[in-house]
Amino acid sequence: MEALGLDYKLLIAQLINFGVLLFVLNKLVYHPVIKIIDDRRKKTAEALEANQKIEERLAALESQEKAVFKEVQIKASEERQRLLALANSEKAAIIAQAKDAAGRETQKGIEKVKQAETQAVENLKKQVVAQMVEQLSQKMSSTDSKGRKYQLLEEILK
Description:
Blueprint: H1 8-141, H2 151-157
Helix pairs in contact: 1-2
């Protein structure tokens, strides 16, 4: 091999150096780097697994939220219907009370009008009677063509 220009001593020294370098790199660099890479893979796998669990929980919570929202909507609709029914019954009661009050007020007004009418008729009668009395008294004070007084009218007025 000397013909090829190889020195056995140098070749063996190079092989020993390469072996030592390989051993040192294997112990100090390769194994720690592989360990770090494996740890990162494990952490990534764990993170992906945790992420998947979180997504599953999120999906479950979303479906639960939708169910609760539907239930709340149903309850709100029922409450709204109940309140509308209550409001309508209150409305009907208020309208009935208003109609009763209006009827009573109308009846009072009719009674007042009747009283006023009766009063007016009585006043008119009094005025007519007063005018008749006045006219009769004027005629009584006068005498007829024969000089007689209206004795009959005097008796009626008394």
